[in-house]
């Protein structure tokens, strides 16, 4: 009993029972009401400060009893907004996340790696609910021969390099080659191609310097399916076609089985995208002095080939035919093969979530945390997930926002239904001293704002919005120096 009802409720229950002896069961609703009054705060721990973390927090704040602590692995917030989204694609979501972080009922604790610095179990004991919003931080693999050769990289790391993610800042991708192959027809592949062919000046300085000295002339974007199945979107393709000094090439033969009627019947966004691809296929005015971005369809990498130094030198491609099946368009290898030479090979075939604690069930096939409406399987009440960790690595920020709002609704509903089970929890007052005693340097949102200011100052000296600190030690140093 005592683990279910607080002292105040027990008192109310006894009083209620004594005063209304004629109705033995009348104390039951009183207890629920008393509990509602007595629980002053519902403590929620959110793991990850990307869009999912911040949008989930924003929606949970609707319940005035909710207090939120956001834990982030890096000393800096915002997840892929900082480390994924290309600097020339930034929107104003950071302002809205900052507003959320500055609310009285929200605290940010950076530089804390959940799973390593503190266990999930410790968090579950200290919070009424924990929401896993830690994204999808691992890249998918092709599982073909040669994937471990030198200069074969996941696009995830290449993106991390030009966006200043600490562990990839010294990646040094090999750019003294004229030919780069990128596998995958998603927006990440297009981001990488765009940066390789005409780098935005807003990327980190180390990457910009290397890219300015790059010898890359041709980027091959290789997709396993056809023009009607690409994952990238029209805005991003159009941007690629407008790069100065660069032509985007599509081969007319890739459209030989696609009739005007088929195109007309496509949903509008897909129709417009296909029309743009078709117009590129009909383009005759190619400039021999320009760099080239070549879109190749119906090709699967079979083997990555290395030279005697273990560096990638070419890729063997199999030509596919497309087969319409009940669950979509699939590929089947034909006997036709091709060899494409390259000095840098990027695989950009999607991301997957990892398990940061052995108790978190992960669907190995889909790379997401096993969950129903955000409720993690195997946990009755108290553990949730949201964002790419819950849905998989698909969709743009607005999609992550909508999904996070929905999951927050489910969590609030769960709080309502499990009201009598809610007891006061210590939240960060228990976790933070524990971390400090272990020597973990905790970075607050105030601290981040100091780093932010410093980065903006460094940027203004270089004529750009910000120059990111790319080293975790430098971030911490910036905080400590300001405090001295
Ligand atoms: C390269 C790239 C470019 C993109 N560009 C765009 C774009 O231009 N426009 C657009 O709308 N969408 C874009 N997206 C999609 C967008 O970034 C995602 O929809 C969104 O970031 C997913 O949010 P999330 O919070 O689930 O994950 P994330 O943004 O990855 O956030 C997860 C957070 O959890 C933290 N974390 C991870 N593990 C731990 C741990 N153990 N302890 C504590 N914290 C942890 C991470 O450091 C991170 O801060 C892009 C995606 C990529 C990969
Ligand atoms: N500017 C933006 O808005 C922006 C920028 C970057 C990312 N994003 C979003 O972030 C999400 C992730 O992007 P993403 O590009 O990583 O993933 P994605 O959109 O899922 O694209 C992955 C690509 O890899 C291919 N692929 C998967 N497995 C493969 C394999 N084994 N062999 C060969 N090809 C394979 C897929 O082909 P199949 O279709 O055949 O599976 C697809 O073309 C997307 O929703 C994207 O829109 C948005």
UniProtKB/TrEMBL annotation:
Q: Does the keyword NADP apply?
A: yes
> Which keywords annotate this record?
FAD, Flavoprotein, Mitochondrion, NADP, Oxidoreductase
Superkingdom assignment: Eukaryota
* Name of this protein: NADPH:adrenodoxin oxidoreductase, mitochondrial
Task: Tell me where the signal peptide lies.
Answer: none
Q: Which family does it belong to?
A: Belongs to the ferredoxin--NADP reductase type 1 family.
Keyword check for NADP, yes or no.
yes
Top-tier EC class? oxidoreductase
Q: Which transformation does this protein catalyse, written as a reaction?
A: 2 reduced [adrenodoxin] + NADP(+) + H(+) = 2 oxidized [adrenodoxin] + NADPH
One GO molecular function term?
Answer: oxidoreductase activity
Using the record's annotation, list all stretches that form the FAD/NAD(P)-binding domain.
43-198
